[in-house]
Write a structure and sequence with these properties.
The chain is built from 13 helices and no strands. By secondary structure, the protein is mostly helical. The longest helix is centred in the middle third of the chain and has 27 residues.
Length: 262
């Protein structure tokens, strides 16, 4: 029997594409904080501002290619680049929580690679169209669920950690919402998010995941600057939550979902 995985496939695919299109947009905009990441490689401000649009265009093209003609090679690049850019944050002096909180950036392409399958012996297969394929057993589905549980766990642990340490950007968000005690709010949100991360890792519940999905999509709209681009770049975060919600429905109601993949 084959399990219809179309929703899982397209959610992962579009979330990955949005993530890198949004990230590339900041390169075009020449986001100032990127200078810190270039400095890790000894690149100065002037050179950094010249290189930002180049990397931004590459990111956007990779994201568009995933929408037009997805390949495993592109997915592998997105995973690698997502990990590198996430690690540049602590390497430039930021909290390691920044790397963890961006698990959606590299975790969603990993889940999509698991779904599409990897043939290590066939190099040409990495450059062929990576379609939804078929979930013909529970093993692949369970791997995807495990991957997504870890991704959602990491992104909420990371974001909760940043709240508890009163990250300036988050405090600015709460102040923008006219919250009178932004620091206390950050602590409360941090505790709730860390508890939510543990729940997802230990025993995810679909109704709770739906709440987290709405919370994540809504909260990402309140960045003080470049709200739309931040929201697009964070697609990996709420894309991972939504995909896990879809995947768990296949395990809870197999008889309803056992049909050929489209």
């Amino acid at each position: 029997m084959l399990i219809n995985n179309t929703k899982i496939y397209y959610t992962l695919r579009f979330a990955s594409a949005m993530c890198f299109i949004g990230h590339g947009s900041f390169g075009i905009i020449t986001k100032h904080i990127w200078c810190n990441y270039f400095a890790v490689f000894g690149i100065g401000h002037d050179a950094a501002y010249h290189l930002m649009p180049v990397l931004g265009v590459v990111d956007i093209l990779m994201g568009i290619s995933l929408l037009v003609y997805p390949t495993r090679a592109i997915l592998l690049w997105l995973v690698t680049w997502g990990v590198i850019t996430a690690l540049l944050r602590p390497l430039s002096g930021e909290s390691f929580a920044e790397t963890i909180e961006r698990a959606g950036n590299y975790g969603v392409p990993i889940a999509l690679l698991i779904l599409c399958g990897i043939d290590r012996k066939n190099i040409n297969g990495w450059f062929k169209y990576a379609g939804p394929g078929e979930l013909n057993n529970n093993e692949t589905l369970n791997r995807i669920i495990t991957c997504l549980k870890i991704v959602v766990f990491l992104l909420f642990i990371g974001h909760g950690w940043l709240n508890l340490t009163e990250k300036k950007g988050l405090i600015a968000q709460y102040s923008l919402l006219h919250i009178s005690r932004p620091a206390q709010t950050a602590h409360l949100v941090g505790i709730v998010e860390i508890a939510s991360a543990l729940i997802v890792l230990i025993r995810p519940v679909r109704h709770f995941l739906l709440f987290l999905f709405i919370w994540k999509m809504t909260s990402e709209l309140f960045y003080p600057h470049w709200e739309l681009f931040e929201w697009i770049e964070r697609a990996g975060s709420y894309g991972a939550i939504l995909t896990l919600w879809f995947a768990l429905s296949l395990t809870s109601s197999p008889s309803r979902n056992m049909s050929p993949a489209l």
